[in-house]
Amino acid sequence: MGCQTGEDTRVAMLRKEPRLIGLAFIALVLCSCRTQNPVGSSQTSATFDDVFQRCATKNLDGLIAACADRDSIIRRIAIASLTEIADKRAAEQLRKSLMDPDDFARESAAHGLGAIKDTGAVPTLKKMLDDPAAEVRNAAAWALAQTNQLEQAMVERLGPDRDPAKEAAVRLFNPVAQMKLVNEHDEGYSQHVLLSLSPTEPMVTEWVASRGRDPVVKELNTALENEAALVTTRLIAAHALVALRTNDVGPLLRVVKQSENWPVRLKCLAVLGALEDKSAVRPLIDLLKSSEDFKLKSHVANTLGHIGDRQAVAPLMDVLAGPEYVGTRIIRPSMFDYQGTVLWRKLKKDLQVSVVTALGRLGDQRAETILRVFADSAFRSEMSKKRDPHKPADVIDLAISAAPDADEEVRKAASLALTQLAK
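-> structure tokens emitted (423 positions)
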């Protein structure tokens, strides 16, 4: 499980043949998550075209109405959009949506109320700390933290006859626990949004049938590249392009390279991996080599692994052996920057895990030696003894020097990748 990432899950869901996309998506994401008629049997379901236009035009009335739609995906999209609009009427609807029967919808509503620091929802959010869904509980706690209400909520949970020592402990450790919660939620919510806002293939097919493929693709690409658009609009546009099996990856690549919004960039990388379009490989390799952002490089490596083109093997090996090298520059924080160093080590570890996972997925025997260097200390020692000090260092020499400092998670990932090469 240590080598499986949220991005792996997204791409695996997305990268099906056209006739299987809707079925696979329903099986993996919507199974037990999608509720067809929970809000009221009198409600009709809006089309994907309807809700997309409401998002694109920031139609507040239309989005509020969609929060009562019988289709859970439509409600999720509407609630996420209201989170970004964040005016008084949007906040009122988000409070109502805390009672939605769909887990993803409740999570999104709680997140939205926290993002706008709405104090009117505090009593309900406190009750949601007992929600059956872990992600909803996490979002409720995060929302309470945004209004400085989490500490008091935790104290209240000790009961009316609470032990003063326990209360003191809660108040003492709350800042540390809250910091951990915020970091985990920021990452986790992005993952859940990416998974839950995805329209099904029949939704997109219905839109194409009524409007025509080319106009729909053009509208989706325009929305995707519009930095002023709601993030929700851009996310659902990206996923709709998978259902359409777009053959123009240019807009997706431009967003990955230029967008300032991380969830949208991440979504576009997942879409590129799902489409398996080989024309994206060279631009992604160039980005892998030139970017100084370890987090971005990590997801680019994952995408290259999913696309499956073996011209990515050598560049991936270079990054594995020297993740901190970008051309002739070394990306590393100051030795006096403790927090920066801790974060840098984590991002470096994540990058190396992504790279070895991608190499295993590509299945090219050229990667066997470097993977064994990271996976097997005895093998690495033998290789080190055979090094010729008079020859220029190659990628294996660099790997032999770098591997002893690699995280244990990297070693495990390399071992798993080797089993994939052996198949």
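The chain has two domains: 33-196, 278-423.
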